[in-house]
Amino acid sequence: ARAGRGWCQGLNIPNELFLTLGLVSLVENLLVVATILKNRNLHSPTYYFICCLAVSDMLVSVSNLVERLFVLLMEHGVLVIRASVIHHMDNVINMLICSSVVSSLSFLGVITVDRYITIFYALRYHSIMTQQRAMVTMASVWLASTVPSTIFITYYHNNAILLCLIGFFFFVLVLMLVLYIHMFALARHHLRSISSQQKQPTVYCSSSLKGAVTLTILLGVFFICWGPFFFHLILIVTCPTN
């Protein structure tokens, strides 16, 4: 019992930290969106998906900023709001955050699949990923992301809903892992063929190492950025009192 209480100790994180992280993330994603919209050379399905990913992350940042700003103002007595209004605002913000999280993870998966098609079906890519299909994909992701957010807010006390979100995170993680490893394996195969023809094993080893490092960084950044949020959800399920 004592060990269980130690495992479920609460952790208080300053609101100022969340506010700072939200501002940094907002600026970064605004720059990404502005760059893609301004540069006509980037007006392709791949960059449309990246733009949607940036918008999703930007909505997470905005939701976080609004929530933390209201909390700070109320903590310092600057803003006084009725409990019923706070409850409704909290529901709206949580719905927006949940929708943004699902859409962000979904677009990460879409970008991975898009890269996979680019490598394995290079000659047919433009016929497979047309502008129309890209638009339908983006609209479908945005529409589908609103459904789980509504269900989450309605049944947020149900652990099954949280487990579905956690499961979705690991699904995207496994999808990225499998597809990127497959792409990396194909790249190594091509490098091995080129190296054997040119008799330059050093180039092959160097390129393979760079590819492995890139793959590790890519998946590592994904896990580091999203891991804490879903670890938090796991703690909610396992330690509901804290």
From TrEMBL:
InterPro entries noted in UniProt: GPCR_Rhodpsn (IPR000276), GPCR_Rhodpsn_7TM (IPR017452), Melcrt_ACTH_rcpt (IPR001671), MSH_rcpt (IPR000761)
Give the location in the cell.
Cell membrane
Per UniProt, the keywords (alphabetical) are:
Cell membrane, G-protein coupled receptor, Glycoprotein, Membrane, Receptor, Transducer, Transmembrane, Transmembrane helix
How does the record say this protein sits in the membrane? Multi-pass membrane protein
- Bilayer-crossing regions: 17-37, 46-66, 92-113, 134-154, 160-187, 208-237
**Gene Ontology molecular function terms on file:** melanocyte-stimulating hormone receptor activity
Indicate whether Manganese appears among the record's keywords: no
Give the coiled coil ranges. none
- Main function: Receptor for MSH (alpha, beta and gamma) and ACTH. The activity of this receptor is mediated by G proteins which activate adenylate cyclase.
Q: Which residues form the G-protein coupled receptors family 1 profile domain?
A: 28-242
One GO cellular-component annotation of the UniProt record comes to: plasma membrane
| Homology family | Belongs to the G-protein coupled receptor 1 family.
Q: This chain belongs to which protein, by name?
A: Melanocyte-stimulating hormone receptor
* Main localization, broad class: membrane
Q: Does the keyword Glycoprotein apply?
A: yes
